[in-house]
Automatic annotation (TrEMBL):
<feature type="domain" description="SRP54-type proteins GTP-binding">
    <location>
        <begin position="93"/>
        <end position="284"/>
    </location>
</feature>
<dbReference type="InterPro" id="IPR027417">
    <property type="entry name" value="P-loop_NTPase"/>
</dbReference>
<feature type="compositionally biased region" description="Polar residues">
    <location>
        <begin position="18"/>
        <end position="28"/>
    </location>
</feature>
<dbReference type="InterPro" id="IPR000897">
    <property type="entry name" value="SRP54_GTPase_dom"/>
</dbReference>
<keyword id="KW-0547">Nucleotide-binding</keyword>
<keyword id="KW-0342">GTP-binding</keyword>
<protein>
    <recommendedName>
        <fullName>SRP54-type proteins GTP-binding domain-containing protein</fullName>
    </recommendedName>
</protein>
<feature type="region of interest" description="Disordered">
    <location>
        <begin position="18"/>
        <end position="40"/>
    </location>
</feature>
<dbReference type="Pfam" id="PF00448">
    <property type="entry name" value="SRP54"/>
</dbReference>
Amino acid sequence: MSSFFTYKTHYPLSYTAETPNRPTISTLPPTQPATPPQASTGEVALPANALSIPDILAWHSIPQDLINAMSGSSLAAGLERMIDFAPFPIRPGVPMALGGASGSGKSLTLAKLAARYARQARQSGGRIRRPLVLACDSTPGSYIKLASILRGCDIDLMKAYGGMNPHLIDGHDRIILVDLPGLCVYSPTAMTEMKEVVERTQASLSLVIPAGMDPEESTDIAAAFHQCGAKSMIASRMEQSGRIGSVITAAACGLALTYGSYSGSINEGFTQLTPTILARRLLVLPG
Ligand SMILES: Nc1nc2c(ncn2[C@@H]2O[C@H](COP(=O)(O)OP(=O)(O)O)[C@@H](O)[C@H]2O)c(=O)[nH]1
Ligand SMILES: [Mg+2]
């Protein structure tokens, strides 16, 4: 696994997006090649016979230095070397706040998690309590939107604008998810406000990064969250974009890659990412 500092040392932000012979969408068809792949893919089928794996990674706008660092026996092995793949680090009694840019998928991802834990609680026959969701985004309309996404889920939803001291919450033995406002990491004020909410809630912090974002921007965002104490990330909109380099560069900053979100529905398209699943997604465009 790499850390943000290793990544920054070896892969500075100043990489050029203009990779030589950069493939275009028309050179990366989502169909099976007529001839075998040019490189080992770790049991993953390569969709484009005309392109090497480094070419495809460049198509995803992954920096050349990171591509070089991933090269070796197979793409899955290269990903495993550069990225920490881990279960989502949540436990009862410790609130988990989901942060990221506005529109990145924080609320939908939170709802997917809440729906899972609500299902577990229901199936436990009363042994596990239903999850609690703290709505910390006071942007007009966001509470109503969150409540409507969560409608039908067996959860408790509580407004906690500005954060909330967890001692005031009946939550020591239940999963607590925190919906944060969207923020711009380049704004020191916004970052300070987010840190205050997270500290007041004594929450852990996880980042939601959408596929399709500019990989340099996602590196900046992941680095800023890493410095704020985030240890993990979730990749959203994995089925909505071709290029997913933003997910790779963010994770290579030292955030453990947990779930990938593949659908706009709260009850489907939410998968624990593994090197093989990610390798396949890099090589095969969404169908
Ligand atoms: N298809 C699809 N839509 C997504 C996914 N994640 C988020 N969205 C949509 O993206 C939009 C913004 O998501 P939202 O959770 O409100 O973002 P937030 O501003 O970060 O809370 C909503 O319309 C979501 O339904 C995903 O993985 N797949
Ligand atoms: Mg939201």
